[in-house]
Amino acid sequence: MPRPETVRSLLTRYNELRLEHSKDSANGLDRSLEDVSYTLCVTTGTRTVQDALHAAERILRTPSDRMRTVAVPLRLKPAERIAPSEVAPLPSAS
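and the corresponding structure tokens:
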């Protein structure tokens, strides 16, 4: 799976070029837009820009291993135990 930072960078460049191209299609950005579109497809393992954008969205929604945390049970004495109502819920992974 490609690194989220790489995908985010490609999406940023793609969106910048699309915006500039939409303002002035004669500004010579066609080749740059084709290049970043191709790179986005290759990076995400897709064949079309639309599929690459969907894949990039999924990649950016998936938490990276560095962001995942593992709950480790604490070994507390009975007097030190925390009531379940005092524990903040973990963020959902969706």
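(Above: one complete record from the training split.) The chain has a mean pLDDT of 79.
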